[in-house]
Amino acid sequence: MESDLTIDQVAKRTGLSAHTLRYYERIGLIAPVGRAPGGQRRYAAADMAWIEFLLRLRTTQMPIGKMQAFARLRAAGDTTVQDRRHLLEDHLAEVLAQMEAMRLSVCSLQAKIEHYRALEQGLAGASRAEEGHADEQRKPLPARAGKAAGD
Question: Is the pTM of this model over 0.70?
Fold first, then answer.
C-alpha cells in the first residue's frame, strides 16, 4: 500500500468522509496525522491500519466513548496492554451476547414465517375446495330419464 495518502484517498478507501476523518482526529480516535509541506494531512500505512481497526470496532457497535478510551490506552503505550485486552474482552462479551439475542430472534422470526406459510397453504386449500364446490353448484343438473318435467 502507498504511504502518505491524502485525506481524499483515505476517505475513498475507508468509506469515511473527510469530515469524519478530521472529526476522529479532533476527538482523539486518530492520533495527529503527518502533514505535507503545504499542511495537508498525509496518512501513513500505520494510520490506515488503525483506521481499519476503528472501523471494525464501529461495526461491532462499540460506542465512541469506549473507542476513545481504547485509543487513549493505546497512545499510553505498552503499560496498558492488559487494560486494552480487558476492554476488548468486555466488548467481545457484549457483542457475543447481542449475537445470541439476534440468533434467538432469527429463530423466532423463522418459526413465525413457517406458521404463516402453513396458514396460507391451509387458506389456499380451503379456497380451492370452495371453488370446486361452487363449480359443482353451477353445473346444470342432468336430465332425469323417463320423468316428466314437473316432477
Answer: yes
